[in-house]
């Protein structure tokens, strides 16, 4: 038993070193901008860069739009599948898992070919339409997480009884969906929303290939041209990811509802 | 699952019964979305992979994939994905084992799991920056090794922009993913099995070899396959780390989408098809193995 415990400590120590050293290294590097002493200059430069503000703002808005659209797509679908069409469940679940199988770069390659400016649906013809296409792409990428989070939350409530109770009180479909079902799966919706935000905020492939000024391509550009700012940006990104995950934990703890691990 | 009664057992209110034949309308938006933004784009590429420039059916694009420059891209992609998946699986297994069965202080488990949740999502461009700042030519570890131990990492031929460097970087999100998936599986190993084994006189090694491992191997192998697919499709980290100097498949495809570097649109589709086949096959195997694993770990 004693060797077991020592082994466990060794495993933990190796893990801790591997994961903490890059974080410490990044932080240390981000402080090195001023010669001879540590300073937060790199952060100051990053935060005052108009491109940082513009791209971060762009990705934030896009993330929020993705969340709204994703929720409006997923919640009614998951509800309807549970209530009326349980036999379609395996198909819908399979589709929602497909974005984990098909690499994002392949999906966006398809977009560029079928929605080019000379097609029937010229999404890439104008900037606004490309933004829309990018948002649909992000909804696709976050589908596995959003669907599972909402579906898990829906499993915990009795969809059928809630619906029948609301109906017998004279509620119409919009009322049932938005005033009865939605508040009851809010924990799942929020978990899905935070993970969606974490995915969208630094996403590179789609934004870069659709040529939109998002945060991911900006990060790449800074990385290719600057020395210390990239580390500051990595620290900021890590903080954002940490913050999103912390919010998920908070929501799930408040609701005593377990978030799917992947 | 048990909370879904089947449709026949429910007494529908009259207003709903009248709409019965139209209930499929409720999932139309979802299927329309999935077809437009997931299925059609993918099918378009798959069909295109079997067409020549004029649109005639051909296997030529698939055959053209076997030219040395493309094969080497697939080969290095497979090697990096395999190495990071196996490394991630091995280290992840020991970490999960340490927090579940290692009798460590109880606060360590939630800490490790929370950190794993964050680190498994910390991929993409910032991850590349983190490793450049640590193991790059002026990174913290490189400098510390040189100044205090007189050890010049880069004189040994080490390069972050290489197979080894990329594998080491990918482990940062691969290990936590393994920990997250394997922890419930290790939780599922019942205490009684271990007790039964030791009552029958089994040593610890025998217990692991003959009881625990046969139960765990589908989870282990299945998760490794998931990690493999995860690394195979990743591009942002590699692109930010190496630019286009490391010829892996996603980077080749990126260059092809940007500027038709293969000088053949349909060959590009075939390249994408090859990626789908590889990630698809490992995911199908993963799902199959997970179903096997769940037989015991319920």
UniProtKB/TrEMBL annotation, chain A:
Top-level taxon: Bacteria
Ranges annotated as spanning the membrane: 7-27, 56-79, 91-112, 132-150, 185-210, 230-251
Keyword tRNA processing belongs to the record: no
Keyword annotations from UniProtKB, A to Z: Cell inner membrane, Cell membrane, Membrane, Transmembrane, Transmembrane helix, Transport
Compartments (UniProt record): Cell inner membrane; Cell membrane
Annotated GO CC locations: plasma membrane
GO biological process, alphabetically ordered: transmembrane transport
Pfam family, any one: BPD_transp_1
ABC transmembrane type-1 domain residues: 56-251
Major subcellular site: membrane
Family named by the database record: Belongs to the binding-protein-dependent transport system permease family.
The protein, known as: Spermidine/putrescine ABC transporter permease
Species in which this protein is naturally found: Paramesorhizobium deserti
Automatic annotation (TrEMBL), chain B:
InterPro entries in the cross-refs: MetI-like, MetI-like_sf
Example of a GO biological process term: transmembrane transport
One Pfam assignment: BPD_transp_1
Domain ABC transmembrane type-1: 74-286
UniProt feature coiled coil, ranges: none
Gene Ontology CC: plasma membrane
Keywords: Cell membrane, Membrane, Transmembrane, Transmembrane helix, Transport
Bilayer-crossing regions: 24-50, 74-100, 112-133, 153-186, 207-228, 234-255, 267-289
Compartments where located: Cell membrane
Cell membrane found in the keyword field: yes
Topology with respect to the bilayer: Multi-pass membrane protein
Domain of life: Bacteria
Chief location of this protein within or outside the cell: membrane
UniProt similarity note: Belongs to the binding-protein-dependent transport system permease family. CysTW subfamily.
The protein, known as: Acriflavin resistance protein
Organism whose genome encodes this protein: Paramesorhizobium deserti
């Amino acid at each position: 038993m004693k060797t077991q415990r020592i082994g466990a400590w060794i495993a933990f120590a190796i893990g801790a070193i591997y994961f903490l050293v890059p974080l410490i290294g990044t932080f240390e590097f981000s402080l090195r901008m001023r010669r001879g002493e540590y300073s937060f200059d790199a952060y100051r430069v990053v935060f005052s860069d108009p491109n940082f503000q513009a791209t971060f703002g762009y990705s934030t808005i896009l993330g929020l739009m993705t969340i709204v659209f994703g929720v409006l797509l997923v919640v009614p679908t998951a509800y309807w599948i549970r209530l009326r069409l349980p036999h379609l469940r395996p198909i819908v679940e399979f589709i929602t898992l497909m974005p984990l199988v098909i690499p994002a770069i392949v999906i966006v390659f398809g977009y560029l070919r079928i929605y080019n400016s000379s097609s029937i649906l010229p999404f890439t013809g104008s900037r606004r339409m490309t933004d829309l296409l990018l948002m649909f792409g992000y909804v696709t990428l976050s589908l596995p997480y959003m669907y599972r989070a909402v579906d898990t939350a829906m499993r915990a409530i009795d969809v059928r009884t809630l619906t029948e109770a609301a109906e017998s009180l004279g509620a119409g479909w919009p009322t049932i969906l938005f005033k009865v079902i939605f508040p009851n799966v809010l924990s799942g919706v929020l978990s899905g929303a935070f993970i969606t935000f974490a995915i969208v905020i630094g996403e590179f492939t789609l934004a870069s290939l659709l040529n939109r000024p998002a945060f991911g391509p900006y990060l790449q550009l800074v990385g290719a041209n600057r020395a210390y700012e990239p580390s500051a940006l990595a620290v900021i990104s890590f903080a954002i990811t940490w913050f999103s995950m912390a919010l998920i934990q908070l929501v799930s703890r408040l609701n005593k509802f377990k978030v799917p691990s992947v | 699952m048990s909370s879904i009664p089947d449709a026949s057992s429910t007494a529908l209110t009259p207003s709903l019964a009248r709409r019965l034949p139209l209930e499929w309308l409720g999932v139309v938006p979802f299927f329309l979305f999935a077809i437009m933004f997931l299925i059609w784009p993918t099918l378009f590429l798959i069909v295109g992979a079997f067409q020549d420039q004029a649109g005639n059916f051909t296997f030529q694009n698939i055959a053209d994939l076997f030219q040395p420059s493309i094969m080497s891209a697939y080969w290095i992609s497979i090697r990096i994905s395999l190495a990071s998946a196996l490394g991630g699986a091995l280290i992840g297994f020991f970490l999960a084992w340490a927090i579940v069965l290692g009798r460590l202080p109880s606060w360590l488990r939630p800490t490790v799991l929370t950190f794993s949740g964050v680190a498994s999502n910390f991929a993409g461009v910032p991850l590349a920056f983190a490793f450049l700042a640590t193991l790059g030519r002026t990174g913290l570890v490189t400098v510390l090794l040189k100044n205090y131990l007189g050890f010049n990492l880069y004189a040994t031929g080490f390069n972050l922009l290489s197979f080894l460097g990329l594998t080491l970087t990918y482990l940062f999100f691969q290990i936590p993913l393994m920990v997250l998936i394997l922890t419930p599986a290790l939780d599922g190993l019942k205490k009684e099995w271990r007790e039964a084994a030791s009552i029958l006189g089994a040593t610890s090694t025998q217990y692991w070899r003959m009881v625990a491992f046969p139960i765990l191997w589908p989870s282990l192998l299945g998760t490794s396959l998931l990690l493999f697919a995860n690394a195979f499709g990743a591009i942002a980290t590699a692109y930010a780390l190496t630019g286009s100097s490391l010829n892996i498949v996603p980077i080749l495809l990126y260059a092809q989408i940007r500027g038709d570097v293969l000088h053949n649109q349909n060959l590009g589709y075939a390249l994408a098809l090859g990626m789908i086949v590889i990630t698809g096959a490992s995911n199908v195997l993963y799902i199959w193995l997970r179903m096997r694993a769940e037989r015991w770990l319920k």
